[in-house]
Design a protein that fits this description.
The complex is a heterodimer of chains A (about 950) and B (about 190).
Chain A: H1 2-8, E1 25-29, H2 33-36, H3 42-49, E2 53-58, H4 63-67, E3 70-73, H5 79-92, H6 98-104, H7 118-121, E4 128-129, E5 134-135, H8 162-165, H9 191-199, H10 204-211, H11 215-227, E6 235-239, H12 241-244, H13 249-262, E7 273-275, H14 284-287, E8 294-295, E9 299-300, H15 310-318, H16 329-341, H17 365-374, E10 380-384, H18 388-391, H19 395-402, E11 407-412, H20 417-424, H21 426-429, E12 441-446, E13 455-458, E14 463-467, H22 480-494, H23 504-508, E15 515-516, E16 521-522, H24 524-532, E17 534-535, E18 554-555, E19 590-591, E20 619-622, E21 627-630, E22 708-709, E23 731-736, H25 752-757, E24 762-765, H26 767-773, E25 780-784, E26 789-796, E27 803-805, E28 808-810, E29 812-816, E30 837-838, E31 850-856, H27 864-876, H28 888-892, H29 899-904, E32 922-923, E33 945-947
Parallel strand pairs in A: 1-2, 1-6, 2-3, 6-7, 10-11, 11-12, 23-29, 24-26
Antiparallel strand pairs in A: 4-5, 8-9, 13-14, 14-19, 15-16, 17-18, 20-21, 22-30, 23-31, 25-26, 25-31, 27-28, 32-33
Helix pairs in contact in A: 1-13, 5-9, 5-10, 5-13, 17-19
Chain B: H1 5-10, H2 13-19, H3 33-37, H4 41-44, E1 47-52, E2 61-67, E3 70-76, H5 89-92, H6 94-99, E4 108-110, E5 118-119, H7 122-139, E6 141-144, E7 150-161, H8 167-180, E8 182-186
Parallel strand pairs in B: 7-8
Antiparallel strand pairs in B: 1-2, 2-3, 4-5, 6-7
The chains are: A alpha/beta (about 950), B alpha+beta (about 190).
The structure holds iron/sulfur cluster.
């Protein structure tokens, strides 16, 4: 989560759930915690019982709202305006925790003279290039460091930003010695003054106009948050996928982080930013990533041009003159390569770094799907406990992509829709997929359940918890550990005689895991030991990452997890009952890094090392003992005194001063202003969602100019003002979860209890919208976008109130997204409505706000579904270039680039292979998969033109 | 069945409610002879495994009760400091997740252009997957880009998944794919 990583240094929730009970105010925004993380919500209630104020900000009134002290309805996609207005209030009224801000943030740093912001540039930051649709960040740097901007992708093939996601365990690099400061905060180039100017237009009136929140309610929220923060009090911000699944999601998190830093809430009891993750081990799967742009421990995947050698790779991470624990990046990297390749990795061969596969662009899941549709690139696909036919955005594109593969391996507990698409996808009903003409060979290999294998999950507070194995898996069911161990073993056996250099790495990888039992299962504990790492000279397990070396004498499969097997004890398996321990329960499981439960807890003490207040004491300096002590493991070198000042020229860990609490940051401070690490702006700015019924009133610029698009006829975006046609899709749709179902439903729709508790897909609408469209409670309705049509039962409820925005009423509809064709309760796939527009930092799609139409009754059947979508496309003038404008001002300027030209520009895959004039034709959504035995993958299927001259003039012209 | 008057009166729930220590009549007072004779599945278990709920990221502690090699019950673990014994409906339903009929327990195979699933034994399936992986890897291989920068990779294979898997599993997945040059590894964190 780069929003957190760029602000604080690590991309994980900053505290634990129990710590919520220490808060004086809890703001829950972009999360329906009571229903989506129900058991965690007990800690919110605990805080409330102790007198904390609980505020819930969300488009829909939920059980979280019902239990909160205040509920604030908000138009989906406008959170930055609300947060920006609170930030503005703090800055202009000087309500910040000034000592904290001066000591622990970059407020007094000077920003380059070259920096210009949205105030100056109509919504853009300096450095935007509409030809590449991306920012050159040189002008965003601190004064004197302008040469250090994030490197831009050199080719125009894709806007990519692996560096963004890499901020999981460390901020971006910056030269700390060259930084200039003004502690009076008066210099107009200080971060403080830059922010003050930037947020000045975020006013309560703007909040009312854009978010639909009345000013008195705004007043209440702002005052509750501000007055419950400071020396004696702390507040916590809780968010979830409601924020991350956005075209500008990272900037939402940045806005929250800025406010929490200004109010002095980071690193302190009852403070922090609690990121609630959706899946049992989703934090774990970014820590030890199954992601293309990362290696374990947030080390970047090597890049073809930026990392020509191990030395270049390490230097890029360490940066020049950089502070903090990334200074030991060479030790982390070499130890990983030793864990991967053992004796084959030597100092002489640079630990096989050169042989590693390299990335050179966006290779994310949505780009892969586009490649599958295009054909001839991806031949085989593994699905490991994931169901993209239901769970990923634009399910039609997902299914049609899978129907054009050579082979697919599905590993799951149940027969999910992604395994059965060839016979029961909605596209079979429309005639686009015909089983006899669908080439994909499918292997379904049943998986072991969580009680049939041992291993660790990393849950939302970075806590690793070991699960014991209860029983053997039945029949052919096997763990992923078994599957991948034996896949690798068999491949290595088949290639064992190979002298092809391409097979070298596969033959050199350490793969000698002992197997056990009839099933020949490898041991998870052995793998966890490998992750922890060894001192290779003694053969002992290392005690933690500080013991890792760059000389090849240690190994560690994931440096941030190093210590999980310290003293040859599986620390993640510790189960000392919570009631016998302190609140943070340090002897239950193990949290990365080094079992620290509240990150940045050095900031709970003042610069001299004394608690800011007795009430909020957590970790402090004990002068007599000469060490940091307290109720948590210090997130700081334990014997480094507060008075420590680095000698001149120091770098890395030695350069961290005794009052630098953000030890992963390159300057030791929390970043109010992020000169690096976020590719779409150093400060958050409000843009309308990629699809919106409203013109942006904050800036001329309508949408995030750097958003990523994938446009072909399956993934077209609705026009937004000032483009004509948005009125055809007048409503905002929002999706999220129910308590009783789980994501794509494979683990819930098939279970009798859960299917009975939530037996049908439904659509929540307000009484006003029901009246407007003639919808009946418990009757049927269907929602239509340019991608899909989805039907559901209607739930008329005042939990979704229409909001007044820009002096007109906006209606929002809400749907849970768990349904598909399989299981005990079936329904349409809600994610089919979505388009693929991605946050440029993390390539996460915008799920939470799109536009649609709603009509009463059931949807059409069969091919008539496609006709309905096509009719909407014609009416709305939806083309390959609609909704893809990068710079609105250029669109509005008579001599500026028109829509088609803008869509052709850049690297987003929008215009790839198309002519500008074709970009403005309305194409049918139909996509027939037709293949015969012996055929190659279908390639470049031409879409049918249904209107070759739509009205592309702008609104009001 | 003849019942003595005293037994009859004592067996009357209201009597027990008024005389016993269950004045609200929700506990022992309301218990029937049948429920008194029952023992919980948890008491009969041969073993109890300490586990974690597999659904959301709260990570509630679970106790998995096993008898005769079969999971008989899954309950919240009161020892867990953050869940304190509680489970939500999903966590409470996880015994069905493990034992339910929805689970597919054997390998299924759909041949190209096929209209039905077929059975396949696990050994054959593994061999076929290994052969296909090796072949797709070769076909999608890229040694270098057109300016000569090393790529050492295959684009012929992609993978999606990981957020429901164990750390150790994700570790082996990334390690193997990296060693075979497959970079297109992704998971739910992006979705
Ligand atoms: S029991 Fe519910 S709240 Fe707890 S981890 Fe499972 S799904 Fe999450």
């Amino acid at each position: 989560m780069p929003g957190l990583g760029a602000s604080f240094g690590r991309g994980g929730a900053t505290g634990d759930l129990q710590d919520l009970s220490n808060a004086d105010v809890i703001v829950i925004q972009g999360s329906n915690m009571a229903e989506c993380h129900p058991v965690g919500f007990q800690w919110v209630m605990e805080a409330k019982a102790r007198g904390a104020k609980v505020i819930h900000i969300d488009p829909r009134f939920t059980r979280t709202s019902a239990l909160a002290d205040s509920y604030v309805p908000i138009r989906s996609g406008t959170d930055i305006v609300l947060l920006g207005a609170i930030i503005n209030r703090v800055l202009t009224q000087e309500r910040d925790f000034r000592e904290y801000v001066l000591a622990y943030t970059n407020a007094s740093w000077l920003v380059s003279e070259d920096f210009e912001g949205p105030e100056d540039l109509d919504g853009l930051f300096s450095g935007f290039d509409s030809d590449t649709r991306s920012y050159d960040t040189a002008s965003w740097q601190y004064a004197g460091a302008e040469e250090d901007g994030d490197e831009q992708e050199e080719t125009a093939e894709s806007t990519e930003s692996e560096s963004g996601h890499a901020m999981g365990a460390g901020g971006a690099s910056v030269d700390h010695e060259s930084i200039r400061r003004d502690e009076t905060l008066q210099d107009p180039r200080t971060v403080w003054q830059v922010m003050k100017r930037h947020f000045s237009r975020y006013t309560p009136e703007m909040v009312q106009e854009v978010c639909g929140i009345p000013t008195d309610l705004f007043e209440e929220v702002a005052e509750a948050w501000i007055t419950n923060s400071g020396r004696e009090k702390t507040g916590v911000l809780v968010y979830s996928v409601g924020w991350t699944q956005r075209g500008t999601g990272v900037q939402y998190i940045r806005a929250g982080a800025i406010l929490q830093l200004l109010l002095g809430n980071m690193g302190r009891p009852g403070g922090g930013v609690m990121a609630l993750r959706g899946h049992a081990s989703i934090q774990g799967s970014t820590d030890i990533p199954t992601l293309y742009n990362l290696l374990p421990g947030y080390l970047q995947m090597p890049h073809a041009t930026r990392h020509p050698s191990l030395a270049a790779y390490v230097d890029a991470i360490k940066g020049a003159n950089q502070k903090g624990f990334w200074g030991n990046a060479d030790a982390y990297t070499v130890s990983l390569l030793k864990a991967y390749f053992g004796d084959a990795a030597t100092a002489e061969n640079d630990y096989l770094f050169d042989a590693l596969p390299k990335i050179d662009g966006d290779h994310g899941t949505y780009g892969q799907v586009m490649d599958m549709i295009e054909g001839g690139k991806i031949f085989g696909y593994f699905l490991l406990g994931q169901n993209p036919a239901v769970g990923s955005a634009n399910g039609r594109a997902q299914r049609l992509g899978m129907a054009n593969l050579d082979w697919l391996v599905v590993r799951d507990l149940v027969m999910i829709e992604s395994a059965t698409f060839w016979k029961d996808a909605p596209e079979v009903e429309t005639g686009e997929i015909v089983p006899e003409q669908c080439r994909t060979e499918v292997f379904f290999l049943p998986a072991a359940s969580h009680v049939e294998k041992e291993g660790t999950f990393t849950q939302t507070q970075r806590l690793l918890q070991w699960r014991e194995k209860a029983v053997n898996p039945p029949g052919d069911c096997r763990s992923e550990l078994w599957f991948f161990y034996h896949l690798g073993r068999r491949m290595r056996e088949k290639l064992s005689g190979s002298t092809d250099p391409r097979d070298r790495l596969l033959l050199d990888v350490t793969w000698d895991y002992p197997v056990h039992g009839e099933e020949q299962e490898p041991s998870s504990a052995d793998v966890l030991r490998e992750i922890n790492g060894y001192d290779l000279t003694s053969g002992e397990l290392v005690p933690g990452f500080t013991a890792l070396k760059a000389d090849g004498s240690t190994s560690s499969g994931c440096w941030i997890y190093s210590g999980v097997y310290a003293d040859d004890v599986n620390q993640a398996a510790r189960r000392k009952p919570g009631r016998e321990q302190s609140l943070h329960a340090p002897e239950w499981g193990w949290a990365w890094p080094m079992n620290r439960r509240v990150l940045y807890n050095r900031a709970s003490a003042d610069p001299e090392g004394r608690p800011w207040s007795e009430r909020k004491a957590l970790v402090w300096w004990d002068e007599d003992a000469g060490r940091w002590v307290g109720d948590d493991v210090p997130d700081f070198e334990v014997t480094k005194p507060p008075s420590y000042r680095p000698p001149e020229g120091a770098t890395g860990v030695a350069a961290i001063a005794g009052d630098d609490p953000f030890i992963m940051q390159s300057d030791g401070k929390g970043w109010l202003y992020a000169p690096k690490g976020v590719v779409d702006g150093p400060l958050p700015a409000h843009y309308e969602p990629a699809e919106s019924p409203f013109r942006n009133t904050v800036y001329t610029q309508q949408q995030n100019p750097a958003r990523e698009l994938y446009t072909n006829h399956l993934n077209q975006v609705h026009p937004s003002p000032p483009e004509r046609g948005s009125e055809v899709f007048p409503f905002v749709w929002v999706t999220s979860r129910l308590t009783e179902h789980h994501t794509a439903g494979g683990m819930s729709r098939y279970l009798p209890y859960l299917a009975e508790l939530q037996p049908a897909l439904f659509m929540e609408v307000s009484p006003e919208l029901a009246a407007l469209r003639g919808l009946e409670h418990l009757g049927w309705a269907h929602a239509v976008t340019a991608r899909a049509v989805v039907e559901a039962r209607v739930l008329v409820t005042d939990r979704l109130a229409p909001l007044r925005v820009q002096d007109r009423e906006v209606h929002q509809i809400w749907m849970p997204y768990h349904w598909g064709a399989g299981g005990l309760t079936t329904g349409d796939v809600v994610n089919d409505l979505a388009h693929l527009t991605l946050d440029p930092n993390v390539h996460i799609q915008e799920f939470k706000a799109g536009t649609c139409d709603v009509q009463p009754g059931r949807r059409p059947r069969g091919a008539a579904v496609l006709d309905l979508i096509d009719a909407y496309r014609v009416r709305g003038g939806v083309t390959m270039s609609s909704g893809s404008v990068a710079v609105t001002a250029e669109l509005l300027h008579p001599d500026g680039k028109d829509r088609g030209e803008q869509a052709m520009a850049g690297a987003t895959g929008t215009g790839t292979g198309h002519r500008a004039e074709d970009m403005e034709k309305v194409l049918s959504v139909r996509h027939d998969i037709r293949s015969r035995p012996g055929d190659p993958q279908q390639h470049g299927v031409p879409a049918v033109v249904i209107d070759d001259d739509p009205d592309t003039s702008l609104e009001g012209s | 069945m003849r019942v003595g008057v005293r037994t009859f009166i004592e067996g009357w729930p209201v009597y027990r409610q008024l005389t016993g220590n269950d004045p609200l009549g929700r506990g022992a007072a309301a218990q029937s002879a049948r429920s008194r004779s029952l023992t919980p599945r948890t008491a009969e278990a041969d073993s109890v495994a300490k586990s974690v709920c597999p659904y959301c990221a709260v990570g509630c502690g679970q106790r998995v009760f096993v008898k005769d090699g079969r999971v008989t019950q899954i309950e919240g673990d009161p020892d867990s400091p953050h869940s304190r014994g509680r489970l939500c409906p999903k966590g409470s339903a996880s015994e069905q997740l493990v034992n339910g009929d929805q689970r597919v327990r054997t390998v299924k195979y759909r041949r190209p252009y096929g209209t039905e699933w077929e059975d396949l034994d696990l050994e054959t399936a593994m061999e076929m997957i290994v052969d296909r992986t090796i072949e797709a890897r070769r076909r999608g291989w890229q040694d270098a880009d057109d300016r000569g920068n090393r790529l050492n990779r295959t684009m012929g294979i992609a993978s999606l998944g990981g957020a429901t898997l164990d750390n150790e599993e994700n570790y082996l997945i990334k390690k193997l794919f990296t060693a075979m040059g497959a970079i297109q590894v992704e998971n739910q964190a992006r979705i």
